[in-house]
Amino acid sequence: MSLDDSYTTPDGRTIGGVLMEMKNITLRFGGVTAIEDISFDIREGEIRAIIGPNGAGKSSMLNVINGFYHPQDGEIWYKGERRQAMKPHAIARQGIARTFQNIALFNGMSTLDNIMTGRLTHMKSNMILQAIWKGPAEREETVNREKVEEVIDFLEIQSIRKTPVGRLPYGLQKRVELARALAAEPSLLLLDEPMAGMNVEEKEDMSRFILDVNDEFGTTIALIEHDMGVVMDISDRVVVMDYGKKIGDGTPAEVRANQEVIDAYLGVSHD
Amino acid sequence: MPNQLLFAIEVTINGLMAGVMYSLVALGFVLIFKASGIFNYAQGVMALFAALTLVGIQNGQVPFSHLINAVFGTDIHHFGWHVPAFLAILLAAGVMVLFAIIVERYILKHLVNQEPIILFMATIGLAYFMEGFGDLMWGSEIKKLDVGLPQGGSLWLEAKSKVLGGDGFYGFYIDKLDIWATFFAAVLVISLVLFSQYTKTGRALRAVADDHQAALSVGISLRAIWVIVWSIAGFVALVAGIMWGAKSGVQFSLSLIALKALPVLMLGGFTSIPGAIVGGLIIGVGEKLFEFLIGAPFLGGATENWFAYMLALVFLVFRPQGLFGDKIIERV
């Protein structure tokens, strides 16, 4: 399979060209190397998983993609251009949205307001107009509110629209966080352990939402997940990391057959 | 109605009005603390600086005239014009925005991710710098601030309320300036609340107050938000400076009103705008009533100086987060 060719998956989705390419990324914290010389790509329309044991550097990788960390070495190519080191909020404006491992919602705000913050990158009116709530500012609120309502319907969270998110159960908070990221209509959606701490039923719901998002909006998704069953079920291609190095990359079936991956997960006997 | 009760009512009303003034100062603290976790020691000095700037602009004072005269041997003090109050207020607000930009650019930007205590120390430095800078820029003499607000007791109210009591009761004495201060404070708070609830920037402000990382991930620039927050705090300081300055003249002891805001914040909670208002009102009424009922008759008076702090201490013991503050919960 060549990198620039688009292809169609067995279930009929089209996977396009390369959306993001990480080239030889190295990230160090003082003397600790969190990521060592890792390269991989994310193609348009695919669900790309990053897996690996605890401390493998998966979250660091996500943080590099969305700009919380800046790698010491390597290049990041996004939409065909080399990306310079920039602030996370600027990267968000380029269409990269994310969720967090330990939910990072705005607890004091309602579900609706939380999701509305996801629309900030699409709102341009200036402060003076906002202050008097007239003209473009008023129209903008209405238009974006409609978008947000679409996302709310899609994720089936109509009933908690006005609830302060701090009061919601864990599973629903995760869903609101996904909604906030989706509201930004991102080109690339990063999910950091979207199913961590969920029960089976909640996991099934979340898997369904991730697949639906990808299917209906064609959103490219990169996700980190611990639950192997889920990862193998929903992702098109998988990167496997261990101790900051890449030890495997390919379709779920290829990765599952990879001896190094099996060793990393099950341990190697030294005899 | 017995006169004693009427006096108590009058004291309460005056206490409420004084409380509004405390709330105005406390409000500036809460805004910055909520958004950035910084306890801005300089808030009081900001009120002073804003008032100084307003008076300076109004009277057409030449900034740094003392310095210029000393260095170049000239003798200039005034441009010789008078700027109308409304325009002068707008210009002073502009100066406070400029101040916010400078603070962000030269202080906050370099202290990102530092401990709160470091940021607190930075604001102490800022406070002393600004006090000296204000002195250098506008001179240290006590200035009269007059933006056209009516002063003195309201005769109308006094005459109307006189009938409530018997002999020896001459009606409620309420300062017109206090009534205006209350009015402006109410308008200010309502517009702040509406702005933060129903606009995009307001949502971004609340988002930053809640979670910096999440705010960044949805595309909010922290630096831009800090400039906005400090600008709003500067504007609140200007309003507080105008009210306090009109009441007691613009003098350097004005910066000490920040100390009165501390017990207000302990009472109301550092993170709550309604808390700042209710806290201010409780302290205002509390100290006036305490003086009237207990202080003057039994303790020899002058209880107003310490009552607020004592009340705050009691609160610290029984409800450390204040009336409206976020509960302090540690997950085990």
Summarize the structure.
The complex is a heterodimer of chains A (271) and B (332). Chain A has 271 residues and is of the alpha/beta class. Helix content of chain A is 37%, strand content 24%.
List the helices and strands of chain B in order: HHHHHHHHHHHHH
What's the number of helices of chain B?
13
How is the main sheet of chain B built?
none
Average predicted local confidence, pLDDT of chain B: 87
CATH topology of the largest domain in chain A: Rossmann fold
Radius of gyration of chain A: 19 Å
SS element count, helices of chain A: 10
Largest sheet descriptor of chain A: 6 strands, mixed
Number of separate structural domains of chain A = 2
Q: What is the helical fraction of chain A, as a range of percent? A: 25-40%
- Do you know the CATH architecture of the largest domain in chain A? 3-Layer(aba) Sandwich
Q: Label the overall shape of chain B.
A: globular
What is the number of strand segments of chain A?
12
Helix-strand string of chain A: EEEEEHEEHEHHHHEHEHEEHH
The biggest chain-chain interface is: A-B, 35 and 25 residues
CA(first)-CA(last) distance of chain A: 38 Å
User: Assembly type of the shown chains?
Assistant: heterodimer
Q: List the uncertain runs of chain A.
A: none
